[in-house]
């Protein structure tokens, strides 16, 4: 791809950026929390049809996925769950095929009064767009769409098959991405524009979600000593799991990538529910937890370690010793992923990055996870993850930096043109 072609594509990104932001704003305004992603999928389907893509929009059947590698259990109503894929088929086959994927699900906003602006009324100020999902990762998804638009606006068309995929459940199980693979979508490479601060994810953790179900013995609080407080017992188990977190972080010091980080394994008790009455010793407590694992670590083996840790802690507790807690696997059962055997797509992206940013792309050792794992681990498809800068993901006042978003869109456009090839339209 010559310099003139590159510049025409870059200029087209600039020319379309205001429209890109308007579309992003509309996308962020949809409150697509878990189980409510349908309107976002409708919007993506409409955008793809308007552009002439062949659209596949289907309901996800969990029974089709439950035996596949990386499946995580679904607990909520999944009857409306859908995946949407728009396919571009070239008239001339000259390049390599590509999957472009983004997720439209977002985490809950939390107490609205703690946001400076409403989370689903996106606001642009100080060079940033604020809103739930603006950074993670709706701006990246729309950026990928407008990267394709820029190639067309510059007077070119790709010479390889492209699947533009909008998935759900990235924040909790990953079964949306898994459903596209079960459906049969494949390509020579995958690119996911998660917000990585302009770095390429080299290695990422996996995640295990589990729920502690703790029993107690209720009494009137006036006679609390004769009862057993399930909430306090749950804290006893949490303290034990924090010690397991320390052990796993010691083990991480042997990993070639994660040894560079101080504390890559993070354990988080994220949801706690328990008790029925303030003047009653609580008879029950449920705690939903998350802990990371590193690439190459067995999910099954580390589930056993979690169970052994909880069982040992229970044996050292007056009430739990005879009333052991239960563990439920409540979402992610996801392996870590290291980007390997990806020299060709990395070289193509390196050219695009150099043109937009200058220099060489930096690696990122990522203490969260992305859907890239399914492509690399399940099917040997090299899966790149690179995106814009932003902040407060999963927190209040989430935002994406707009200058970085424009640069990311330019890099994606040039990468698509380099990897897939282009010809005059």
From TrEMBL:
<dbReference type="Pfam" id="PF07687">
    <property type="entry name" value="M20_dimer"/>
</dbReference>
<dbReference type="GO" id="GO:0046872">
    <property type="term" value="F:metal ion binding"/>
</dbReference>
<keyword id="KW-0170">Cobalt</keyword>
<dbReference type="InterPro" id="IPR036264">
    <property type="entry name" value="Bact_exopeptidase_dim_dom"/>
</dbReference>
<keyword id="KW-0378">Hydrolase</keyword>
<feature type="domain" description="Peptidase M20 dimerisation">
    <location>
        <begin position="204"/>
        <end position="316"/>
    </location>
</feature>
<comment type="similarity">
    <text>Belongs to the peptidase M20A family.</text>
</comment>
<dbReference type="InterPro" id="IPR010182">
    <property type="entry name" value="ArgE/DapE"/>
</dbReference>
<dbReference type="InterPro" id="IPR033687">
    <property type="entry name" value="YodQ-like"/>
</dbReference>
<protein>
    <submittedName>
        <fullName>Acetylornithine deacetylase</fullName>
        <ecNumber>3.5.1.16</ecNumber>
    </submittedName>
</protein>
<dbReference type="GO" id="GO:0008777">
    <property type="term" value="F:acetylornithine deacetylase activity"/>
</dbReference>
<dbReference type="Pfam" id="PF01546">
    <property type="entry name" value="Peptidase_M20"/>
</dbReference>
<keyword id="KW-0862">Zinc</keyword>
<dbReference type="InterPro" id="IPR002933">
    <property type="entry name" value="Peptidase_M20"/>
</dbReference>
<dbReference type="InterPro" id="IPR050072">
    <property type="entry name" value="Peptidase_M20A"/>
</dbReference>
<dbReference type="InterPro" id="IPR011650">
    <property type="entry name" value="Peptidase_M20_dimer"/>
</dbReference>
<keyword id="KW-0479">Metal-binding</keyword>
């Amino acid at each position: 791809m010559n310099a003139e072609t590159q510049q025409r594509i870059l200029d087209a990104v600039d020319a379309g950026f205001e429209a890109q932001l308007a579309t992003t704003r509309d996308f962020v305004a949809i409150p697509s929390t878990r189980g409510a992603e349908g309107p976002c999928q409708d919007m993506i389907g409409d955008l793809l049809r308007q552009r002439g893509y062949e659209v596949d929009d289907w309901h996800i059947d969990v029974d089709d996925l439950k035996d596949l590698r990386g499946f995580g259990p679904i607990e909520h109503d999944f009857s409306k769950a859908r995946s949407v894929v728009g396919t571009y088929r070239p008239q001339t086959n000259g390049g390599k095929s590509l999957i472009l994927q983004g997720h439209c699900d977002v985490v809950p906003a939390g107490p609205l009064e703690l946001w400076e602006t409403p989370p689903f009324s996106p606001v642009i100020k100080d060079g940033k767009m604020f809103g739930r999902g603006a950074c993670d990762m709706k701006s990246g998804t729309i950026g990928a769409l407008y990267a394709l638009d820029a190639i067309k606006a510059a007077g070119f068309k790709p010479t390889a098959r492209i699947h533009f995929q909008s998935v759900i459940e990235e924040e909790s199980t990953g079964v949306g991405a898994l459903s596209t693979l079960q459906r049969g979508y494949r390509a020579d490479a995958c690119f996911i524009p998660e917000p990585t601060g302009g770095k390429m994810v080299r290695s990422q953790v996996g995640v295990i979600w589990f729920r502690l179900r703790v029993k107690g013995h209720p009494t009137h609080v006036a006679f609390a000593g004769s009862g057993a407080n399930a909430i306090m017992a749950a804290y006893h188990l949490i303290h034990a799991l924090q010690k397991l977190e320390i052990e796993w972080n010691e083990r991480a010091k042997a990993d070639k990538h994660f040894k560079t980080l101080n504390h890559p394994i993070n354990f988080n008790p994220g949801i706690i529910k328990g008790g029925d009455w303030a003047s009653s010793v609580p008879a029950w407590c449920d705690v939903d937890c998350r802990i990371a694992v590193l690439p190459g670590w067995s999910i099954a083996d580390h589930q056993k370690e979690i169970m052994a840790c909880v069982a040992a802690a229970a044996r050292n507790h007056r009430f739990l010793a005879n009333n052991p807690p239960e563990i439920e696997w409540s979402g992610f059962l996801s392996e870590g992923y290291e980007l390997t055997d990806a020299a060709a797509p990395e070289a193509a992206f390196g050219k695009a990055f150099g043109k937009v940013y200058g220099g060489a792309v930096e690696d990122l050792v990522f203490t969260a996870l992305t859907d890239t794992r399914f492509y690399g681990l399940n099917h040997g498809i090299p899966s790149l993850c690179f995106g814009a800068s932003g902040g407060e993901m999963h927190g209040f006042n989430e935002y994406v930096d707009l200058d970085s978003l424009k640069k990311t869109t330019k890099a994606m456009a040039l990468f698509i043109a380099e990897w897939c090839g282009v010809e005059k339209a």
